[in-house]
User: What shape does this take?
Amino acid sequence: MGQGGIPYIGRFAPSPTGPLHAGSLVAALASWLDAQAHGGHWLVRIEDVDTPRGVPGADHLILQQLHACGLQPDAPPVWQSQRSALYQQALVQLIEQHQAYACLCSRKAIATALAALGQQRHRHGELVYPGTCRNAGHTGASLAWRLRTEAGTEASSEACTVHWQDRRLGAQQQDVGEEVGDFVLKRADGCFSYQLAVVVDDAAQGISHVVRGEDLADNTARQIVLQGALGLPTPYYLHTPLVRNAQGEKLSKQSGAKALDTREPLAALNAAARCLGLQPHSGHMGSALAAWVLQWRALYNPVP
Ligand code: GLU
Assistant: This one.
């Protein structure tokens, strides 16, 4: 049970852009341990909403790797590519509430508009959208859709700042309108954005606790804004430490992370456990997992 007696439902939500690596196993193990420590359910959701980036077969490979590591979901996995109707419904709700608008701008057009404003605004390589199409009232097919944030409205910036609590990182805040801008909900190529899909699915699956890698912490404020706009509850968040390579870069497929070798699952799990501050365990995989659940409870209790 989570706080206030709500049922605990957690999830691991890998994007099938390649097999699991040492970094993604940390998030998988942490979310599994947190669910066990709460006596809750643990789900796996394949986040293949960005179809052009997907690698065929990576989904099944990930599921096999989790299985080899003893991390078994409590219900059959779901695939985001089969859930577009839910995302479209949420987008329609936001359009009807006048909180989403169609955008025709290419990346180049956004860069040009920002240059004309004398602004160099970007965040993690993404340009902060200057709001060009906000009041244009575009209609038609093949349009991108953006969420109208509070930037540029009369609301004070304090009112637009999202405050949230991370169970590991502590108090966090972000002015989404100012720092991120009107973000994309659906791209012109028809793909729904990660932000929209993750918010809709976390609510539809009743996720009470999100445990995921720290590289995703920056998305949380955007997701809280979307939850508010759609009238959905906000789960508890815990962002786990990242695994870095010798150059100090976050392990990722782009930085050349190797696929997890699950012929030695305990070795892989021990490395992930160490990253989470848990004691390495020799012997049997099942007893290692059981020991880590107890240690997790001690480290993260009292937990919301
Ligand atoms: N699909 C995302 C990723 O693999 C994770 C999403 C999440 O946990 O919220 O990076």
User: Anything to note?
Assistant: The radius of gyration is 20 Å. The pocket of glutamic acid is lined by residues 13-15, 47, 198, 212, 216 (CB under 6 Å). The chain has a mean pLDDT of 90.
